[in-house]
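Q: Study each token:
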Amino acid sequence: MNLDNCPRCGKLFAKNFRDICPSCMREIDKEYESCAEFLRKNRGAIIYEVSEHTNVSIRQITRFIREGRISLIEAYNLGYPCEVCGDMIRENNMCNSCRSRLIKEVNRLEGVNTDDSRAAASRLSYQINERLKDR
């Protein structure tokens, strides 16, 4: 039997297929039910309104969306914040502008690394050739 501390409340529990204790799981299910009920009545609500009226954190509502428990198809105004800049998005974890900035930065760094490795390789061969000429 595996024992672990619940990351949410800190209680010791017998770990099974879930990473949180049963009491926290029941609490999360209640939070989900309150969010789902609010969204059934208020389909045009945004995430901040859902959080304010249900007392469920935006982070937890975002988890519900990512897990597929809350569908964005039926809630047309609902979105969640981009993990980088905080703009509201409806898919993935970054908005398009942050994603393109990240791709540009990665490409730039890859270019720097390949230039550095080429320069280092050419310097090594040059030094070896020079040493051979000196003999």
Q: What stands out?
A: The helical segments are 22-41, 47-54, 58-67, 96-134. Strands lie at 3-5, 12-14, 80-81, 88-89. The chain has four helices and four strands.
